[in-house]
Inverse folding.
């Protein structure tokens, strides 16, 4: 005989919208405390929840919240993420300017991006709303949503912060990295350039997701010249500023730094999240893979910033990352065999995030 909770789960697909509303609303907390109740009858409750994103906005919000919680389970994640029709529905709703559940949709998409098969989104297309001023490629639409969401100019109900996590997970795949580095015809911009400006955003979610995306794309070593070129991506200022505090440097040290890092205000603060600081330092280490990258970092005096970061951030991961970078920057370039071995060792220790 089913328990009261199991009966409540059965009401998710009830024909009466009031009953569906009460059922989904009351089941939200159980999606974290007792997720197994949604796995009955070969995930039939999850199937109903997917359909409910088409329901009344309040019911859809409850259903989406439950799905966000349930997709922490790998079996449910695969069941949801492999449903191409569901993905299409989610993406079509996400770009609607007045969609009230856009943020929860973005959260669910962020979870779905953890399934490796979602990299197929690289080739996915849909008609964009004219308000978005994007093109038919879904990835471009997501980027434009992310940019416009930062100041709420597109959808008053959404900031689209969680799309940063979508980009971070997708950028583990080579085809997505290539997208981020390829100039788009419709606006003449390189997608990574749209993300780099958010490394100092007030949103922890944005900063963390963007930092991870930049690091993952930096695994594409042939793209490093574009990363470092002032006329292209010019990524160094956007990585160094978040890890720079209000420390005072000698005049000689300061004058050799990038212009963006000179004459910073006295209230300049280093990113308060050590995991973000560590990610940026590891990105710098990846960018030392080539001789050009190492020479540039020496020329613009990256070392003093890393020295102060190591001294002032009380976090073992940050300190270890700083030490690895310093070892590379201080290494004698006249030892090519030792250099190659050290670079191979760095690849083993720095992983995609």
């Amino acid at each position: 005989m089913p328990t009261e909770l199991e009966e409540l789960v059965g009401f998710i697909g009830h024909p009466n919208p009031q009953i569906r509303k009460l059922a989904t609303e009351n089941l939200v907390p159980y999606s974290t405390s007792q997720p197994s109740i949604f796995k009955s009858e070969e995930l039939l409750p999850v199937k109903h929840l997917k359909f409910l994103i088409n329901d009344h906005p309040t019911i859809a919000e409850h259903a989406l919240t439950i799905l966000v919680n349930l997709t922490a389970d790998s079996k449910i994640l695969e069941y949801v993420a492999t449903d191409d029709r569901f993905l299409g529905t989610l993406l079509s709703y996400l770009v609607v300017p007045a969609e009230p559940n856009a943020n929860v949709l973005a959260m669910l998409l962020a979870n779905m991006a953890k399934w490796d098969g979602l990299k197929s989104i690289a080739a996915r297309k849909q008609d964009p709303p004219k308000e978005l001023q994007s093109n038919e490629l879904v990835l471009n639409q997501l980027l434009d949503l992310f940019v416009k969401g930062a100041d709420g100019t597109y959808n008053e109900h959404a900031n689209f912060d969680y799309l940063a996590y979508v980009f971070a997970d997708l950028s583990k795949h080579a085809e997505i990295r290539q997208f981020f580095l390829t100039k788009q015809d419709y606006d003449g911009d390189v997608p990574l350039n749209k993300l780099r400006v958010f490394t100092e955003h007030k949103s922890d979610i944005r900063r963390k997701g963007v930092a991870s995306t930049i690091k993952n794309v930096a695994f594409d070593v042939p793209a490093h010249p574009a990363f470092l070129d002032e006329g292209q991506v010019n990524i160094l200022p956007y990585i160094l500023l978040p890890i720079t505090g209000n420390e005072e440097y000698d005049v000689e040290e300061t004058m050799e730094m990038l212009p963006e890092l000179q004459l910073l205000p006295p209230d300049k603060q280093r990113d308060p999240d050590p995991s973000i600081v560590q990610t940026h330092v590891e990105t710098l280490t990846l960018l030392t893979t080539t001789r050009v990258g190492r020479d540039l970092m020496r020329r613009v005096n990256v070392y003093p910033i890393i020295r102060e970061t190591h001294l002032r951030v009380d976090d073992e991961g940050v300190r270890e990352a700083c030490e690895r970078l310093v070892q590379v920057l201080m290494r004698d370039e006249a030892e090519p065999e030792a250099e190659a071995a050290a670079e191979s060792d760095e690849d083993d220790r720095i992983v995609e995030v």
Observations:
- Residues 147 and 188 are 16 Å apart (CA to CA).
